[in-house]
Amino acid sequence: MARKKLLSQYHPFLYFLSVWLRRLQRYFYWHFDGKKYAKQKSGDKLAYRIKKHQSVLLKKLGENHMQLQINKVTNLKIAAKRINGIVINPGETFSFCKLVGLPAKRKGYLPGMELSFGEARAGIGGGICQIANLIHWLVIHSPLTVTERYHHSFDPFPDDGRVLPFGSGATVFYNYRDYQFTNNTSYTFQINLWFTEKCIEGELCINTALDYAYHVIEKDHKFLKIDGQFFRKNEIWRHKVLKFRGGEIVDTELITKNFARVTYTPEIYEEQLNERTI
Fold first, then answer.
1. Is the dihedral of CA 114, 119, 120, 121 positive or negative?
2. Is there a domain that residue 164 lies in?
3. How many other C-beta atoms can be found within 10 angstroms of the C-beta atom of residue 198?
4. What is the superkingdom listed in this entry's lineage (predicted)?
5. 228 occurs within a structural domain
6. pLDDT tens digits, residue range 106-151?
7. Which pLDDT does position 9 carry in this prediction?
């Protein structure tokens, strides 16, 4: 069944107006929501690392998207400078959009790939969600509290060397789809980002050692076919384990349930189709 179009999809001006009304609303919240947003940066790393991760810069998404991916690397480097070294003190909230700001040509951002209205297309600053994905993966391995997170309602590309569970990232669109987490602990945290030849890397550091850690796992991953349309689902859980008691699990928590439309034919179904044609 065809999806009903939103009013903002009928004309570019309506879309532009809708976006800026939401952005104005966010500006209002930033001023009056009572949150203390993290803004202090430090070139000195905190003493202890909670989690480190790296994400490949260029992936196999088809020749038509390669230039957008190359542009994405430029966008990532500009955005990463606004976040690298950020310190999140007790009581403070990290806001991705507030730190990075509006991606614009005048800041050096290029057209990169962004996902919108069920399709991949070019947009200024496209691709910086990769930083939000990386940061979210670090944060869910810590006692920090995620307070705002969005994820895509569809899965546009087959897995290419995926090492993280499906749906474990965070999408951002300035500024009304933000990624935020709050430090409700007595500890101080810091996010550091850097680049290697093939990857963007990041780490979450803390000012004191913890006697526990978090292990994140995926459960119940499936591809489904409903009324001729493919969908993908899974659950993401995490265990809290004690470091000094043989990794004893002291708590288990459901992080999120994912259910998304798939815009390609999953490999498992491609195999079944090939078997039928032999």
1. negative
2. yes
3. 10
4. Bacteria
5. no
6. 999 999 988 766 677 889 999 999 999 999 999 999 999 999 999 8
7. 53
Contacts of 73 (CB under 8 A, 6+ apart): 57, 58, 127
Residue with tokens 């969908």: 231
Q: How many residues does the chain have?
A: 278
User: Is 131 exposed, middle or buried, given 0-12, 13-18 or 19+ CB atoms closer than 10 A?
Assistant: buried
User: 104: which 2 tokens?
Assistant: 């614009």
Distance CA 196, CA 97 (A): 24
Residue 278: band (very low, low, confident or very high) from pLDDT cuts 50, 70, 90: very low
How many domains are there within the chain?
A: 1
276 assigned to some structural domain:
no
Is residue 168 assigned to a domain? yes
Both tokens of 188, joined, read 């101080």
Per DSSP, which regions of 117-210 are E strands? 119-124, 145-148, 154-155, 180-182, 189-195, 199-206
